[in-house]
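REQUEST ID: PR-0412
SUBMITTED BY: lab tech R.K.
PRIORITY: routine
TASK: structure prediction, single protein chain
INPUT:
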Amino acid sequence: MTFHKEGWPSLFIVLVFSAIIIFIAKYFFPEFLIAQWFAYLLSGFLIITILQFFRDPKREFTINDGKIIAPADGKVVVIEETEEGEYFKDKRLQVSIFMSPLNVHINRYPIAGKVSFFKYHPGKFLAAWEPKSSTDNERTTVVVEHQNGTKILFRQIAGALARRIVWYCKEGDTAEQCGQMGFIKFGSRVDLFLPLGTKLDVKIGDVVKGSQSAIGSI
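STATUS: complete
OUTPUT:
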């Protein structure tokens, strides 16, 4: 288990904040042990929370060129046919994974191929389970084209708590299946848009792990 690079700024802020409140408690309230204990407990809680949010567990994975691998940890909350209006402009099979604050927040490429499209959209911060979050919230859209011509679109979507999306890709990049493509701070949601007729290996309510669980077959 390691600490993800995206967490260092947040950890620094929490450490500085913790040092300040502990100093205040000890300097201004030396006779009130409850104030000092509160400062210690709050600091410990915040530090543990940040360490948990930005953990980067070491995982073994096997590249499977015929499978679409989960791009994030979380629960499958949507499986439905829907109109994808940004890139494909036709019907696709949508699979949505909700990432809670307790999940690992790293996002990964579901297939290997070439990044044929990328776009960042500023937007709102509706709750991730709201249907409109897929089109109204801050988000990225990434399309990876497999060597056989199949294209998979997936979106990082910010939520009410997640206020920053990080991505490491651009158009023309080579995508490695299970390789890190980004990070959503403090959870949220990832949508996959697959070709109609894709054979799925998951159902609504399943808990999946990024780089570990198969979503379906190419």
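NOTES: The CA atoms of residues 103 and 189 lie 11 Å apart.
REVIEWED BY: pending
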